[in-house]
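Feature request, filed as a ticket because there's no other form

It would be nice if the structure record came with a short human-readable summary line next to the tokens. Right now we just get the raw output. Example of a typical job, pasted below so the devs can see what we mean:
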Amino acid sequence: MNRVLAAALLLLPYCAAETRTCDCSLSDPAKIETRQCSLCREAEKHPPEQAFFYLKDVNPRKPNRWLVLPRAHFDGPDGLRSMTQAHRTALWTAAIAKAQELWGDQWAVAINGDEVRTQCHAHVHIGKLLQGVEIPNFVLVDGPAAIPAPRDGTGLWVHPVNGKLHVHQGEQITETVLLR
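Raw output as currently delivered:
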């Protein structure tokens, strides 16, 4: 393995560690201005009655990626676990609708795990599924309401197959299945 890549992978948990104890206090200007709180700041730009909003990924290395975010703030570094089932279903439905609009039936959506997440505010990555990334470790579900909340701090990625959804769980880095 390339030494630079190996070093980057070893350091990745330390780069994202601040999100595991995230405290994006909207009332504390110093805290809300930190990098890991930038999506919380973005959420505040939208009206409270707006349930979700979409953002083009600002990373220049990911020109084909979008994000969907809830307007509301949820406790903890992984807001999906603290959302109600109805709110999670609505978020997944919004993510899948945008993914289908952009990529037809070649879409995928992903949430990174706690150890590699760099943003505190809950968000779902939207993109085109890369060819050849399918692995046999998945749960087959009928639709967004059946997508489980990420467990034990891991992420998940979802894509369509024959009118159903494959939900791949138990990984930290999941957005790498999406076209950059």
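Something like this underneath would help us a lot:
The radius of gyration is 16 Å.
The first helix runs from residue 3 to 16.
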